[in-house]
Amino acid sequence: MDLLDALKSIETGQHATNWREAIRLAGKGLVESGATTDEYTDEMIEAVEQNGPYIVIAPGLALAHSRPSPAVLRAGLSWVGLTEPVEFGHATNDPVRLIIGLAALDHDAHLEVMSTLALALSDETRFERLLGATSPGEVRALLAESAGN
Amino acid sequence: MKILTVCGMGIGTSILLKMNTEKALKALGASADVEASDIGSARGAARTVDIVLISHDLAEQLGDVPAKVIEIQNFLSVDEISQKLAPEV
C-alpha cells in the first residue's frame, strides 16, 4: 500500500482549541474513512495521557497513534492541518500545526507507508510547505512530488 | 553495535526513528543493527543493546539502563541523529 492510498482523509484549515480536540479531528478522519472505530480515537488520547507528548516528533508535527487493537479495522492514515497551532506540552516541538493520525494492524505491515512518509517529511522545504498547505489537493501534490523523486 | 529506537507503542515514532537512524548511520559511514521497541519492552531490550535513541519524555520513564541513552528532539532530522550518534559509532 503506498502513502497516498493509505492517506484516506486529508483536511486542511481545521480548528482545534487544545491537543485533545486536535487528536479527535485526526481520529474522526480515521473513523470516516473506515480505518478505525471511535474507541481508537480515545486510545490515541490515552496514549498521550500515559506517555506524554512524545508523539510531537518534529517541530509542528504530531503523529497521533495507539497500538494495534480491535478498534483498528484496517491500516490507514489521516491528515489534519490546523489554521491556529495548538500546544501539546512538548518541550521543544510545540506548537503543533499538523496532526497525522496512524492506525496499524500489526507492527510490520505499514512499514512501506511509514518509509514513504519519512521520506516526504525529511526535506525541510517540503515539510514547511506541507505544514502550511491550505487544501487537500496541495497536500496530495506535495506528497506525490516526493514519491516521484 | 546494536541500537534500540523507542516510542510509546512501537509502531509509529520508533519506526520513523529507526528509518532515520539507518540513514544517519549510512551518512556517518557506520553500520549497526537498529531495532524499534515500545516503552513497555524497552527496559528489557535495552540490556542487550549499546545505544538507546528515545524522546525526552520517554527517557524519564525508561530510567537507568546499562546502554547509552541519547535523547532525540526532532525524529525527522537525520542531521540531529547523525550529530548525536557521531561520537558513539
Automatic annotation (TrEMBL), chain A:
Source taxon at top rank: Bacteria
GO biological process terms on file: phosphoenolpyruvate-dependent sugar phosphotransferase system
Main subcellular localisation: cytoplasm
Pfam families in UniProt: PTS_EIIA_2 (PF00359)
UniProt subcellular location: Cytoplasm
GO cellular component: cytoplasm
Name of protein: Ascorbate-specific PTS system EIIA component
Record organism: Ruicaihuangia caeni
UniProtKB/TrEMBL annotation, chain B:
BP terms from Gene Ontology: phosphoenolpyruvate-dependent sugar phosphotransferase system
Source taxon at top rank: Bacteria
Signal peptide start-end: none
InterPro entries: PTS_EIIB-like_sf, PTS_EIIB_2, PTS_EIIB_2/3
Top EC class of this enzyme: transferase
Boundaries of every PTS EIIB type-2 domain copy: 1-89
Annotated EC: 2.7.1.-
GO molecular function annotations of the record: protein-N(PI)-phosphohistidine-sugar phosphotransferase activity
UniProt keyword terms in alphabetical order: Sugar transport, Transferase, Transport
Protein name: PTS sugar transporter subunit IIB
Native source organism of the sequence: Ruicaihuangia caeni
Lineage of origin: Bacteria, Bacillati, Actinomycetota, Actinomycetes, Micrococcales
